[in-house]
Amino acid sequence: MVLKTATCRFSGLRIYPGRGIIFVRTDGQQFLFINKKARRLYHQRKRPAKIAWTTVYRKQHRKDLDTVVARKKRRSVNKSNVRPIGNASIEVLQKRRAEKPEQRKASREAALREVKERMKKTKADKQAQKASQPKGGAKATKVMPKGGPGAKGGKR
Q1: Whole-model pTM?
Q2: Do 49 and 60 touch, CB atoms closer than 8 A?
């Protein structure tokens, strides 16, 4: 035989059939309390989390942990999946991972040197182009409309 139990709205304890006090609020909501003590504390607007014998307090203050089922902790095994990143293949990534720090540093410096040389070359080309163009050429003047009928802007 299964007994249908309810829970107290204040204390959180189980209320068996034939026990408890029902309080019906003016909006029609029903509150079931285990005893007068719980009902009285509810009407005094006490917070169940601050009263030591309520289930809310016991949960917040980590009491009754022995009744809670302890879950087994699973060890997570790190799976190192090597996948291609961007346009670098797996072989290239493994090769880079295997190389020594000195090699890595040397290849990085060589790449930086190559980039700097390329930048110097483009800069020199730009300067050569500027030098080949005539400096004293006549400047083109921009024709601006004078203020007249239908002209927009200007002084108010």
Answers
A1: 0.43
A2: yes
